[in-house]
């Protein structure tokens, strides 16, 4: 098994994403999780370019990392300075990072057009910068910027540039597809040429996703002999992003016949959670279709797939989701079947037979309600609640009943936003609770009032948070022909420390649709807690 | 130049995405745009599996497509039927589609485990199904399900299966990576073997993105001789999605040295708009980092990149975004726009100079409000109104002023839907009008009450209809962290006999956001009528 170094640059190149802004605290949190995942190098930033990055390098020294080494990023020395007087190289050495990664120009047009020095002078700058850092006892990784474009336009010059870095002591020559325009067939051919020219050198790869090829290009380079991959969590990065380590690591671990090793194998099951954590800290909506780690990555919707995957998962799954800490999900649609309902009931401790009337009854109800616009494929928790309600005679209880709610919106010529107030009257175990609350908008006011009414009876509702709220207008389902009277579907995602769940509501009235999803969401939390409690009591 | 057929399956395999639900109207709209883009085939659905798909095939016949041919999808015949009595094959022929695409098992374990017939019987089924459709005069495309997994486990059987389809008259043998687990190096090797075994056959490729390799695998297949690619717009599809045609088409057109042609070259610049349109109809958040067509695809954030790209775009851009109908964005600068504003003002009879303060003022306001979530690219009418308001001193009038509105929602344990009532007090030319109305939900009630208040002053509002109402929750823009207090954007499309216009509102309160868009919509109608009237008087 060949060891492939994993070099994470989420904290440096990743932050070039248009929609990412990380402060120092965010960066430290992410670095700790990356270390737990077991990556080899964490590129923390460019200490020569800004103070946030310098703060990171100084603070991360307070943490005992288990596995990863910290790398600092910078450029070759400025044409006007000697290496030993260059402030950028100085800041790399002063950062306290274990590794210095510097980029240099290997495309001749960039030397003359961007750096504005002669081709010869550029080679000298590369050599002297690497040699100086090396002489100071630091391992140096050389990022060969625009290497593939450079090679395509002037192969001799591109090879000469990395040859200089190698001669000066660079430990890894990282070939960069900076503009992301290179195809895998070109990467394979060019990496092979580099290996021929510099058979002793360690080759790394750094790709961008402008052709949706960043992962493919990284794997192609490894298959041609590269031993070091630079990328980011979830593929974040400038323009279309960097190579996605959340795909690259599983591919090398699971899909290459055991030829390669990356992170410690037992850590692979942390990758789904690590991906989610980075999205969360960076305040980015996770991409549900993301390979390996996405919420939909192992979700089966089609009737044929759903029934086959129940029998033998490998028929429609190329890897076992549990190896990645992800899970299989068989979505409930009109097509999918009774077996799903039986296994769903089992999760809540009810043992049903496929042929019981309650199973068929639920399927029929799901079908009718789906045609009204309820999206049960997305809202599994609402399906589970429908099932539990049908099983009510077997001891499932109602947690609360609505007596009345009222929502008031008031806006006058002075106010920028309307005043929102909701009052809720509910009955819980024979006791009527009547509360009122304001909120950011009518749905939030209703949410606040309902929680206020219930919290005394069910204090664990404090653990629950509403994570996402989606509204879709379904023009076609509208009997009155569009406009403001359209039917809307609301999906609400909620979570507590243990899990996340999605519920649905449908109405031409957005308040009513939100209310349905809200009530389902809270009820689901209460059922879930009660079931856990019962199970623990039984286990004891 | 070799012609590569583009076969779009957004409407069939794409709808297997967890978060996509298209009704027939949506499907027709998307098909028309795909035809305008110039794809060769549009797979409309599986007529044998559900009534929505059947409705599509019957309705699409009312449209004169310019370029694309419609394909219907289905399976090989059921083991218990003769082909001529098989309802699934019948529904393909009855659909009226120009092409029949049927899938069959080419992985032996799927024949025995999923289809539950002998390996020999499965080959017979493939042959007889293709031969029957062929005998009925239909071109048949054979989707070789799980071909790559099948080939890896039993190459002789996999080749025998597609050999049967070829012999029976299949026009294209489409090799499917159904589970998405195959790497490009494997695709190249296996496609080469298939070409050796069946040198006369036309080879197609159908890939899934479970290894983030769907695009790379499609291109690898073409480079090894495939002449037909199946994929979806934006890569939507089951689990991690299908091969993304929005990347594949630009790669083949722009990145392969002119070796291939796909859609008519002048249509390539429609691809960004088509991608956005499909996301919009499917109510999916567009993926900003999407290659070629994404909002961030040519966005430069890094200081070095941003300044270099201003000098010479090719330094950091691998293709020219204008070829795709996309554009370069240098972030944190606002260079574009003045000329647009000048020409917009001209449409309303105002002659402005590019350097007037009002132009710069409007640009600044648009920038601020865009960062709050106002989508002015979609809502041009709201931009025009902002301009007209800035020009108020030049004689543009206010049509009405809000004094107060109030919206009440009431629901009790008896009512299924809440009672919705709105009262509106507005001032028009010094007269206060106070009205109330009920409605289907709060926004509809508000809409009804406002119109009732204004109709006596502006009878031409009777001509105006609200055509569409869209709501998008923008989690990222929410200062309070998600849930029911999220910021929402409302887009309202309105129309009269002459034109259609779109307006926008943004708030964490959906009533307020709807109110903003509603007021803009009505105001726009009134401005428009007044301007028409003035122009006609001048012409007389």
UniProtKB/TrEMBL annotation, chains A, B:
SUPFAM superfamilies named among the record's database cross-references: 2-isopropylmalate synthase LeuA, allosteric (dimerisation) domain, Aldolase
Domain Pyruvate carboxyltransferase: 4-269
GO BP terms, alphabetized: isoleucine biosynthetic process; L-leucine biosynthetic process
Pathway: Amino-acid biosynthesis; L-isoleucine biosynthesis; 2-oxobutanoate from pyruvate: step 1/3
Single Gene Ontology MF annotation: (R)-citramalate synthase activity
Catalytic activity: pyruvate + acetyl-CoA + H2O = (3R)-citramalate + CoA + H(+)
InterPro entries from the UniProt entry: 2-isopropylmalate_synth_dimer (IPR013709), AIPM/Hcit_synth_CS (IPR002034), Aldolase_TIM (IPR013785), Citramal_synthase (IPR005675), LeuA/HCS_post-cat (IPR054691), LeuA_allosteric_dom_sf (IPR036230), PYR_CT (IPR000891)
EC number: 2.3.3.21
UniProt cross-references to Pfam families, sorted A to Z: HCS_D2, HMGL-like, LeuA_dimer
Top enzyme category: transferase
Keywords carried by this UniProt record: Amino-acid biosynthesis, Branched-chain amino acid biosynthesis, Isoleucine biosynthesis, Transferase
NCBIfam families: citramal_synth
Similarity comment: family membership: Belongs to the alpha-IPM synthase/homocitrate synthase family.
Protein name listed in UniProt: Citramalate synthase
